[in-house]
C-alpha cells in the first residue's frame, strides 16, 4: 500500500479532536438513537445548516458518524466503535481516581480513629501505565 493510499483510508480527524467541541458532542447525542437528516439536525442548533454540516464532516472524518443518501437527502447515524479508543484512554484515569479516592478514604478513616488528631499523611499512590 502506498503512502497516499494509507493516508486516504485513515481518518482526517482523530476521535479526540472530534469530541473536543461541545457542539459535536451534542450532535453525537442527537444521533444515539436514530438516523437523522441534516435539515432535522440543524433545527436543534442556533447556527446555520452549513455550520452544522461542517461539524458533521469532522465527525464523519473521524469515523464517528456515517452518511447515507436517501433521494436528495443525506442522513447521518452514529458509529460508536471509534469511541472505544477514547474509552480505553479514559480507563487509565479511572484507575488513577480510584486509587486517589481509596487513599483519601484510608486517610479519613485514620483521622476518625485517632483521638489526638495527629494523623499520618495518606499513602502515596504510584501511577501505573495504561495496559495496551
TrEMBL record:
InterPro entries: ArsR-like_HTH, HTH_ArsR_DNA-bd_dom, HTH_MetalResp_TranReg
Domain HTH arsR-type residue range list: 4-98
Superkingdom of origin: Bacteria
Keywords (A to Z) from UniProt: DNA-binding, Transcription, Transcription regulation
Region (Disordered): 112-132
Record-given protein name: HTH arsR-type domain-containing protein
